[in-house]
Amino acid sequence: xxxxxxxxxxxxxxxxxxxxxxxxxxxxxxxxxxxxxxxxxxxxxxxxxxxxxxxxxxxxxxxxxxxxxxxxxxxxxxxxxxxxxxxxxxxxxxxxxxxxxxxxxxxxxxxxxxxxxxxxxxxxxxxxx
Amino acid sequence: xxxxxxxxxxxxxxxxxxxxxxxxxxxxxxxxxxxxxxxxxxxxxxxxxxxxxxxxxxxxxxxxxxxxxxxxxxxxxxxxxxxxxxxxxxxxxxxxxxxxxxxxxxxxxxxxxxxxxxxxxxxxxxxxxxxxxxxxxxxxxxxxxxxxxxxxxxxxxxxxxxxxxxxxxxxxxxxxxxxxxxxxxxxxxxxxxxxxxxxxxxxxxxxxxxxxxxxxxxxxxxxxxxxxxxxxxxxxxxxxxxxxxxxxxxxxxxxxxxxxxxxxxxxxxxxxxxxxxxxxxxxxxxxxxxxxxxxxxxxxxxxxxxxxxxxxxxxxxxxxxxxxxxxxxxx
Lengths: 129, 331
Prior knowledge:
The structure holds two protein chains of two kinds. Chain A is mostly helical. Chain A is built from five helices and no strands. Chain A has a domain of 57 residues. Chain B has one domain.
């Protein structure tokens, strides 16, 4: 069983060697003449204003939370999909129920405007609830 | 032959003789095809028909100055470009080139593919964060949101493939398509999966991560030399990998159409040679489609991208899965 994974291990080593050698070779081969203009952050030729690590939109966090919920759903579906025909009707319909509940949740967040990144549009929509 | 030695040989052949050159050829093909579509010449000076252009580009990139911005996080900044190229190479581990030619056939092949595919997000996101530039950060954030959004429809579409194959092993899935390719049995999942693969590979019309008009270079704005080149290489490797995935899961992998009905029995060697050629022909076709789409469709806006992923493709994929499961359960 486990010996099937040895080629994957070898491949991971080969991939890492390739990736590291690209980076190291270019570092060794290229010239090294730094100056402050080259080393600064690029902001279309202007002097950068402040740091880049600032606050950003909360929408990104909501996407991440939704992703975890539905990714778990997918992980539950996979083993079920392999053997669903042998498990009988009870298992089949309980999986349908599970998918149904999560689907309702998805419809709810959609109606709430979670994925409307168009701010004006989503505010108008929310006020109607 | 000893199976481990065989898979090691296949591994070196696939990575060094196929994957790396194919990325170079894909760069050349993209430039020539785009030139053809836009009615201009494209690169045609270096070697016959410009064929050596990608090699000249790689040599040039190796000889350029390697800059690490002073405000960047040095460790993550150096680590980030290695991740996409590593994951792209690892993905080919479970893809079968013929019934007997593959690096390995593990019984959880699909889970392995999904796990490795989702790792490549880290490269782009870390690059965006570590560069400490506003363009890069925006590109990295977009990449994270986009790639996790499109992974879900992709996963559910693949789940409906498993319904037909009753196995997570990639070789089993290809063999389940010997009579009917999945594209005929399950066309909706095929469309969803193809769109998701385009988004995962950051290809146009989903290339918001590096939308040059608004974000300069997106996540690789601050990268130079072969660090940039590695991102570039990984992007084209992901085109080849994406073509392989579409071929494997929906276009019958190494099987000719309806091969089970009409193809006569062949010796294992002849069958392998035929299979490899069939598989590679399909991969080349899909790589061409990737390029064709880029030079045909305009880019989405970010809100359209999110709405397409969550409000259209995910519900459609789930409904498709449920309907197929009910039909297959009752016949």
